[in-house]
UniProtKB/TrEMBL annotation:
Biased composition annotated in UniProt, kind: Low complexity: 60-75
Region (Disordered): 1-25, 56-89
Keyword Membrane on entry: yes
Ranges of compositional bias, category Basic and acidic residues: 1-23, 78-89
Protein name (record): LytR/CpsA/Psr regulator C-terminal domain-containing protein
Source superkingdom: Bacteria
LytR/CpsA/Psr regulator C-terminal domain location: 94-178
Species name: Nocardioides gansuensis
Transmembrane segments: 25-48
Keyword entries, A-Z: Membrane, Transmembrane, Transmembrane helix
Keyword check for Amino-acid biosynthesis: no
Amino acid sequence: MATPSRARDARAEVRAREPRSERGVAFPSPLVMLSVIAVVMAGVAFFATKDQPPLEERITTSSASPSETPSATPTPEEPTKTSKPEPRVKRGEVYVEVFNNSGIQGLAGTTAAKATSVGWAVVGEDNWYGAIPASTVYYPARLKAAAKLLALDLGIQRTTPAVEPMKMDRLTVVLTADAA
C-alpha cells in the first residue's frame, strides 16, 4: 500500500512528465482595442468642439414689396455708393452632386433633374449615409456664391462649408425628408 507522501510524489512525477499548460493573461483582441480608442477619440473631439459656433447659414428668400406711390413733391436722390459687384455665377460651369439622405426613393434623381433644367451641371447622384439635420448645399470656399444661388434655385434653406469626404471642386447637395 502506498503512503500519502508516496502518492503525492507519484502525482508530482506524472505532472512533471505532462506538458505544461500555457495559461496566462488574455489580452483583448485588436478590434476591441481599436473600438476603445475610437470611443475615447470621439469623446475628446466632442468636448474640444462643443463650444464652437455652428458653421451653417440660413438662406431666406425675400418677397417683393409693393412699390411706393409717386408723391407730388420731388425727393432728393441719395448718393449711391458704388460697390464692387458680386461675381456672376455661371450655372453650367459649376459641378453639382446630389445625394439622398431621406429614404424617399428617387428624391436625388428628381432634384438632380430640377437642377439640370435650371442650368446646373449635375455630375452625379447617389445615396448619402450619415446624419444630416436638414437639406443642405455644401460648398468649397470659392463656390459660396454659387451655393447660395443653387440653394435658392432648389428651395433649400441651409448652406454650409464642405467637409471631408466631399469633393472640394463642386457643390454637394444632401437632401433630407424636408426636401420632398
